[in-house]
């Protein structure tokens, strides 16, 4: 999956600022650079993530399903208290 477009990155940035999820003490430009870096990291590590999924599910799940599972795991690990 390709990195987000500039407009999609801007949308993530705007949504995050609107939600107010606690990135206090940083400038808007700094927050945007974090979003860009995270998206670049996801793009650079997509193959590693895919290879971490055991077969036969690696070949069975769609890219969208794999992404959804990643989101569920990350949210559970870091956002659910």
Compose a concise summary of this entry.
The protein contains five helices and no strands. It is mostly helical and 81 residues long.
Characterization of the model:
Helix 1 crosses helix 2 (28-44). The protein starts with 5 loop residues before the first helix and ends with a helix. The model has no long low-confidence stretch (mean pLDDT 91). The longest helix is centred in the middle third of the chain and has 17 residues, at 28-44. 72% of the residues lie in helices and 0% in strands. It has two domains: 1-44, no CATH class; 54-81. It has five helices and no strands. It has helices spanning 6-19, 28-44, 46-52, 57-60, 63-78. The radius of gyration is 15 Å and the shape is globular. It is mainly α and 81 residues long.
Sheet with the most strands, sense and barrel status: none
Task: Work out the strand percent.
Answer: under 5%
Q: What gross morphology would you assign?
A: globular
The count of β-strands is: 0
Number of individual domains = 2
What are the segments in which pLDDT stays under 50 over at least 5 consecutive residues?
none
DSSP helix count? 5
Mean pLDDT, nearest integer? Answer: 91
In angstroms, what separates the terminal alpha carbons?
A: 30 Å
State the assembly state of the protein chains. single chain
Summarize the helix and strand pattern as letters: HHHHH
Q: What structural category do the secondary elements indicate?
A: mainly alpha
Q: Radius of gyration, rounded?
A: 15 Å
State the share of residues found in helices, binned by percent: over 70%
């Amino acid at each position: 999956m390709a990195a987000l477009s500039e407009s999609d990155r801007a949308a993530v940035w705007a949504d995050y600022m609107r939600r107010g999820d606690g990135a206090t003490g940083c400038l808007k430009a700094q927050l945007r650079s974090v979003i860009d870096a995270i998206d670049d990291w996801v793009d650079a590590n997509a193959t590693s993530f895919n290879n971490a999924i055991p077969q036969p599910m690696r070949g069975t799940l769609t890219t969208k399903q794999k992404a959804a599972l990643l989101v569920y795991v990350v949210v559970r690990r870091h956002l659910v208290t």
